[in-house]
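Fold these two proteins, one after the other.
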Amino acid sequence: MSQDTYIKTFVPKIDISKSEDDDNQKWYIAGYASTDAVDTDGEVIEPQGIDYDYFQKSGWITYEHLPGASNVIGEPIPDKIYADNHGLYIEGLLYKDSPKAQEVWNLSEALKKDSISNRSMGLSVEGRVDKRDSNNPNIIKNMTLTAVTVTTHPANLEARWQGFTHKSAYEGYVIDPQAMQDVSALRRESLVGGGATNDVANAITTLTYVLSRYNGKDVLGEAEKYMRAKGTLNKNDLSLILQLSEGISREEAYDFVNRNVKGV
């Protein structure tokens, strides 16, 4: 990538969904707009160096990096933007009356139904490069984010993502990756009583996100410590943690726990 003022870096994948609880069924978009992975141009944006204040207050979600009002398809949800060690996560509202937003929505629905390889659109950031690493100019230390665009351009396959299924950020439940970073995401209490199917589905989504992260094993380890301290840990829990963290079979995990773990 040339040393110009603005940068554009693609990150698959995103999730586009509607709120079931809203009579108007608003359209929402969610995903990592930038990650700490090297992009196809060999550059890295340090997540903590992204200044998203302007984007949060005045920026837009746009279509394929194209200029002009007709290519503005939405806006960010201000309190649903954050940077973590993985990258910059955003949620946004799409404008249903925008023809380009409708294109994005229709393609998203088509991909969910027809893609044989789980393909998805992605997000890409635009902004001013404020500082590059003095020893390696391919490392962007600081940037000012001005826009996030929805794109179909292929690139960075190492990027991770977490989707929302059929619920908005404002209504009903929400599965928030920021809230999933600690062990509270793996508590059992929500499975007690009615609505178990919905809660199990949420738990599966949570575990999928945890396992996709670079520190997934650490999170599972902390979950084990938390449950042990609370007195809720049992051999079934330990066996599942082993299966998820080590990739072994259910039978192998149960055998190991029964032979080696005492006092649970």
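Now the second one:
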Amino acid sequence: MAKTDAVQLHVRERNALETPTDLDRKGVSEIAGNLRQLLADVFALYVKTKNFHWHMSGQHFRDYHLLLDEQSEQIFAMTDDIAERARKIGGTTIRSIGDIAEHQRLKDNDEELVTPGDMLAELCADNQRERHNDIATASLIETWIDQTERRTWFLAEIAPTL
């Protein structure tokens, strides 16, 4: 009886993370995997941007320091949208620093001293890697799908409790 209860609990826990979606399991797995890598890269970019913000020096310190602080806020703001996108389609997302390290494709910069010019050039290159073709068009459609999936997700979470 205890083994049956444990199996039922495991099934309930696994089902708790499932979200209604019109995507097949393979599609969810592929998309969530890509979003996991993207999220890991965004976290890596955030930390690198803050690293350079904290270690900026030189003639244009104030301007670059403030610029990198502003950009790090923009980058961090992306994380929730990416993670929730994976959850909305029934996938899972990053769970820890180790998970980020396992999935990130951007390289960290642990150098003791990096010149301001090298910092900005490296961040420029890393930010360009995060761009994709024709995001503006895809974004319009994505917004509508995202809003629908968010409504479905919230309703699906509430409905069983009523």
